[in-house]
Amino acid sequence: MKNLIIIDFPVSDNKTEFSESLSNYSGLEWEVYSKVSNRPRKNIFIKIQRYLLYAFCPFSLFLRRKEISNIVAWQQFYGLFFAFYSSLFKVEKKVSLIIMTFIYKKKRGILGKAYYHFIKKCVDNDYVDLIICFSVDEIYFYCEEFAMKKEKFIFFPLAIENKENDVNINDRLPEKKYIFSTGYSNRNYEFLIESLKNTEYELIIASPNLSKSNYKNIQILDNCFDDKMNFYMSQAYCVVIPLKDKVISSGQLVALQAMQMKKPIIATNSEGLKYYIRDSFNGFLIENTKEELLSTLNLLYQDVALYEKLANNCYEEFKSKYSIDRLAHEIADDAKKKSIFNH
User: Fold this and answer.
1) Angle, alpha carbons 96-337-327 (nearest 5°)
2) pLDDT at position 148
3) Residues with Cβ < 8 Å from 46, sequence gap 6 or more?
4) pTM, 2 dp
5) Residue range 156-162: average pLDDT?
6) Under DSSP, is residue 181 helix (H, G, I), strand (E, B) or coil?
7) Contact at 8 Å (CB) between 34 and 7?
8) Is the N or the C terminus of the chain less surrounded, counting Cβ atoms within 10 Å?
9) Per CATH, the architecture of 2-159+323-337 is what?
10) What is the pLDDT, as a whole number, of residue 343?
11) Where in the chain is the domain with CATH 3.40.50.2000?
């Protein structure tokens, strides 16, 4: 019988740091099942391909469910669809299922109502054993939104692999002091561009969903991912994470990447990020106003001692709280306490 970690990014040798740590702490041997769906969303065909993978990849596993004991779905939709098929066909529950990185964003209109009922059918059933959220406030929001018991949800801080040897962690201020921003979920780049256009600050945004910039001090990179994105972030002076909706969980991954690279963070004061960014300790949490953004940038650029303090705190915070090994340990411990995993 197999124990599967389902992910949506490529790996070699069917192993990751997370799978090895989870194997160590759970006493089970975990395999990585990778189906890459997380690609640049440049056109409708790529989006359709992603949605088809979300649906058909879990269905293939559902058909082979008798070979599987446990599933940890790092990509939430792979786990959600597996639960959906199990509920739809009312099969006997024999596979334990943990869904990670769960995020629900309300949508408008008829499609929004259909999406809501689909997600509720996916999560509010006995086929899902545990749903992991990356902020506490999300748990209360989802419990109220879907009329579910709190026990099915749990908060664990997000974690990323330690790539200290793969990125440029500077012990001095970068010579080229540009601001860097990246990501495309729930981003308010309109606010960021409008606030910084024609200012003294140089801004680089890595996002596939933006048009080319009309401003000399702003550069848009529409094909900047993985190692290339890491390079641009490692050379930046600081990282800005502008968010639209303060309730939706987003921005944590970029925040951890910035912390690993000793980059102070300026971010929208949101429910999801307040657990990762301590104001004036490893970054700043601000409202989406031009005045507050510019005054915070002025402070960060003019006070070298403050910059170095924030940069060092970022790195120390990352090392102590956000390791993959820590996350795997917490999941294994909680699964043991609740007797989730099948042995």
Assistant:
1) 75
2) 93
3) 39, 40
4) 0.85
5) 88
6) strand
7) yes
8) C
9) 3-Layer(aba) Sandwich (3.40)
10) 82
11) 2-159+323-337, 179-321
